[in-house]
Design goal:
The chain is of the alpha/beta class and 504 residues long. 38% of the residues lie in helices and 18% in strands. The protein has three domains: 175 residues, 2-Layer Sandwich (Ribosomal Protein S5, domain 2), CATH 3.30.230; 228 residues, 3-Layer(aba) Sandwich (Rossmann fold); 71 residues, no CATH class. Strands 12-15-18-11-19 form a five-stranded parallel sheet. The protein has a four-stranded mixed sheet with strand order 1-2-4-3. Strands 5-8-9-10 form a four-stranded mixed sheet, with helices on both faces.
């Protein structure tokens, strides 16, 4: 009897668990028995591993081979275990226990000729290995820049199975981790390019200052999409922890760049209006993949033509908007993905959508039905509503245009810094994350400042959640104006942004 052992990582969502792979060679009819809840891709690894071993100059054991992946109750999915399986088989076949193999975690898919191919989810896997106290992790060469983002663990890159075995046996070396390269500052779209729309520009600035959700309505071609695309440029760069979290999500989704994998700028995700629920919140067969709401984590989710999106798709946004997390239940378990994003909705006023609203031929019932897909509970979670008007020829007379992105970004950064300092004891950084009871009790505004909100609540124009959201916007307005507390003017302005959408 011969026994070999190697280690890999099973990733579910952004969480990883160490998987121990054992290979046992015993007398009996030749055959490979894979146990430990493998999925179809992992079942097929038996043929890939066998071909890779034989084509790399090694012999495949011609007897009964049992491959066990433990914990046995943890579902194993994908091809990330290939090189670990191959290493355990060779260890059992040669009856050797290599010290390097005992200390290392192996990640990678094998080609039939022994080449090591890249896999998804390497960054969360390496983070899990570092958290478990592992000393070394071996990854495919194309995944090496991504894996090198993790500090506190030795990361090595491998090209072929032959090269891996030479390193395990102490006869060769592997590529060492690469130095992190800072991504170049991409020239973001300038806010000054937007013609007119002073009120909508200010709403975008307020949304950036407090991480608020925003809805833009109006005829086509007036700048709704342009404003939404310029919102990420107003947001501050991601912190180190936020950048790693966002990069890990994109790693699982297989969307990272090979040269500069670290994402340091807030992402902008704009799914098509025909996207399904699974495409928006995540899902798919096997291991649930992150959807658009998770890929937009710490960034902006832009839903253009939101009135054309199915009602069930829009209602699926409720939980992520409130909790900042998506839980995808599958037969094999629950995958969790963070989803704390800024939502930007854009819609026309009616189906015919003329350039001038005066030319609309839609009846009142048609208009109400068109925007009726946007349910009250969903709209109650949107902080800022702006109805944009057509731009007239006089707007082109001003050659200077409006303020640039750099100028507005500086004000947003100062407002966010003030909010982060104020909410530091609560463990939050933006006004949009502050719980409503805290605003109504611990940071209660003067009675005069609260008067407009009390009146709207008594008239049924606002819910308690709507009051909380108006208070958050009021604090953002105060931060932008350099005030230590919202005034009556701030609460009135916040209420006007909220009620403008209710009067559609």
């Amino acid at each position: 009897m011969a026994l070999g052992r190697a280690y890999s990582i099973a990733v579910s969502g952004l969480h990883g668990d160490v998987v121990e792979i054992e290979a046992d060679i015993t007398s009996g009819l030749p055959g490979v028995h894979l146990v430990g809840l493998p999925d179809t891709a992992l079942q097929e690894s038996r043929d890939r591993v066998r071909s890779a071993i034989t084509n790399s100059g090694n012999e495949w054991p011609m007897s009964r081979l049992t491959l066990a992946l433990s914990p046995a109750t943890l579902p194993k999915m994908g091809s990330v275990y290939d090189i670990a399986l191959a290493a355990s088989v060779l260890s059992a076949a040669q009856k050797k226990e290599w010290p390097r193999l005992e200390k290392a975690v192996l990640l990678g898919e094998l080609a039939l000729d022994g080449r090591v191919r890249p896999v998804r989810g390497v960054l969360p896997a390496v983070l899990a290995a570092a958290r478990e106290g592992r000393q070394t992790v071996v990854v495919p060469m194309k995944n090496l820049p991504e894996a090198s983002l993790v500090d506190g663990i030795e990361v090595l890159g491998v090209r072929t199975l032959r090269q891996l075995m030479a390193w395990i046996e102490g006869r060769g070396t592997l590529a060492e981790q690469v130095q992190r390269t800072e991504p170049e500052d991409d020239e973001c779209a300038d806010l000054a390019d937007v013609v007119g729309q002073t009120q909508a520009r200010y709403a975008v600035e307020v949304a950036a200052a407090g991480a608020h959700h925003l809805m833009l309505t109006g005829p086509p071609g007036i700048g709704k999409t342009m404003l939404a695309q310029r919102l990420p440029g107003l947001l501050p760069p991601l912190s180190e922890s936020e950048a790693l979290e966002v990069t890990a999500i994109h790693s699982v989704a297989g969307l990272l760049a090979d040269d500069t994998p670290l994402i340091t700028r807030p992402p902008l995700v704009a799914p098509h209006h025909t996207s399904s629920v699974a495409a928006l919140v995540g899902g798919g067969s096997g291991m649930a993949r992150p959807g658009a709401v998770s890929r937009a984590h710490r960034g902006v989710l832009f839903l253009d033509e939101c009135a054309e999106i199915g009602g069930s798709v829009l209602e699926a946004l409720r939980t992520p908007l409130e909790e900042g997390e998506v839980r995808l239940a599958r037969r094999d378990g629950v995958a969790r993905y963070p989803a704390r994003f800024q939502l930007v909705l854009a819609a026309n006023l009616c189906p015919c959508a003329p350039a001038d609203p005066k030319d609309c031929i839609c009846g009142g019932a048609v208009k109400r039905r068109y925007l009726g897909k946007l349910s009250g509970p969903l709209m109650d979670r949107v902080d800022l509503h702006v109805q944009m008007d057509p731009v007239r020829a006089g707007a082109f007379a001003d050659a200077q245009g409006g303020e640039s992105t750099a100028v507005v970004r500086a004000r947003v950064a100062a407002a966010r810094a003030a909010a982060a300092e104020r909410w530091r004891p609560l463990g939050v950084r933006t006004n949009a994350e502050v719980p409503g009871p805290v605003l109504r009790r611990g940071y209660r505004l003067p009675r005069a400042a609260m008067a407009p909100l009390r009146t709207a609540l008594d008239r049924g124009q606002l819910s308690i959640r709507g009051v909380d959201r108006c208070l958050r916007v009021a604090w953002s307005l105060a931060d932008l104006n350099g005030r230590t507390s919202p005034t009556l003017e701030d609460t009135q302005t916040a209420l006007s942004f909220k009620q403008r959408g209710a009067a559609r």
